[in-house]
Design goal:
Number of strands: 0
Radius of gyration: 28 Å
Strand content: under 5%
Order of helices and strands: HH
Helix content: 40-55%
Structural class: mainly alpha
Number of helices: 2
Length: 56
């Protein structure tokens, strides 16, 4: 009798596929290089905006 009254819950996966393959890229960058590159791009953008009126 208790079997008919039992409520079944959906599976916890909810249709989401999980992949556990570890992919190792051949190209790796240290986080310090990325930070320096971002700061350099910001400084170049600031310089170009400050001097935009003198080029035209």
């Amino acid at each position: 009798m208790s079997r008919r009254d039992k409520i079944s819950m959906p599976s916890s996966g909810a249709g989401i596929t999980r992949y556990f393959d570890d992919y190792k890229s051949r190209i790796t960058f240290k986080p310090q290089y990325i930070i320096v590159l971002v700061i350099l791009v910001i400084l170049i953008e600031i310089f170009l905006h400050m001097n935009a009126g003198s080029f035209f």
